[in-house]
Every structure is written in C-alpha cells, then in structure tokens.
Amino acid sequence: MPLKDYGVLKGHPVEGKSGTPHSPHYQIHVVDQQNSTDYRVAINVLSQVRPYNLLYQVINNFTYPTTATLLQLASGFTHVPSQPNGLAIDFLRSDIVDPAHMQPLRFTEVGSETQLNDILDTQVQEAIADPNAFICAFGERWGPEENIPDQYFDFTPGNGMHNIHMNQGNDPEHEQEDGVWQDGALLIYLPTKNQWMAVFLKFQSQASQTDDTTGHAL
Fold this sequence. Notes:
This protein is mostly beta strands.
C-alpha cells in the first residue's frame, strides 16, 4: 500500500544534525513561521538493506515547472495527491530526475562520516543563515504526537516528515510502502540568489522499473 500521508512541508530550517551509523538520518529542525509550528525532517544517509550506500543526485541550479507553484505555496504541510500533472514526484514517470545519473554516496565508520552529511549540511546551513530561505521536503508526514517531545530537537508535540527518497520498487521487506507518484525529495530555495537546489535519493536495492499501478518492483 502507498504512503499514508504524502505531501510537502514548506518552512524555514533553523538547525541541522548529522546522521551516524547508529542513527543514519540527517535531521533538520524546520519551523512554519506563519503558524508557529515545529517539524523535524529525517533524511536517510544510509540504507538498512545491502548495499548500504544510497544513490544520490544534487542539482545546485534546479529548474522545474513546479517551483513556481512552490514559491506561492502556503508554509506548513500540504497534502499532495499521488497523481501526475501536479506537485507529486515520480522518479521513473517524469523528467524531474534521471536515476541513471545518480551516484553512490560514501559512508565510512571512521568518524561516523558520510558524504551526504556534508552535502546536506552545506546546503541547510546556507538556508539557515538566510531568514527568508525555505525548504520544501517531499515525503510522508508523521504526527503531531501530542505531549511527546521530539527526540532530537525537544519541541512538543513531535511532528515531522520522513521517507525523503524514492518510495517505489522496494525490497520485499519494505514493499508495503510502494506507490507511484509519491517519491520524496529535498528542495531548498535561496531568495538572495533566486536559486533552487535539489537533492534526490534512491536506495540501491530499489528497482529501476516498477508497476504503473502498485509501484512494486518488476
């Protein structure tokens, strides 16, 4: 079955924390300033399934028709229908990214360093420094978890986004999350440069061809 609540979170990042082998997600504290709501965006930097290194593509001067809509989108979480001709992302059924051009990330146990930590932190810190910058995180929402503080940034209630990566063609253990037009991505807008940056992630265990209805691997 597809993701439970696919959509996009738009807000200003205020803090980032690098992932480690024991907690393999880069964490971003995002604030919806218009509605005074806190979110945490969890981005995988390592796969739980062999091969462990993710595939990625970073586009530093990203252009795509939907960015005009994102500029006008209200801050906070917006549910996105999983269908073409809208904001929904599908790596295999659109030209937003070409998985064939994705490269494997480096991740080493020494110093708990990952190439993606460096990539994400550079982009996120630049957005943090600009009070008018914002991110758009596509993926699955969780929360709000009433009276439960966030485990990384301590705001209450716990609330956020995950599955910020391709969400189809999964291995059998994760195929329940398969679906079409529900892929994740991280987009960052820097108004001082009028520049979009985009990060796309895919697990090496995910298939490059999927069923047009279920999103299951072919």
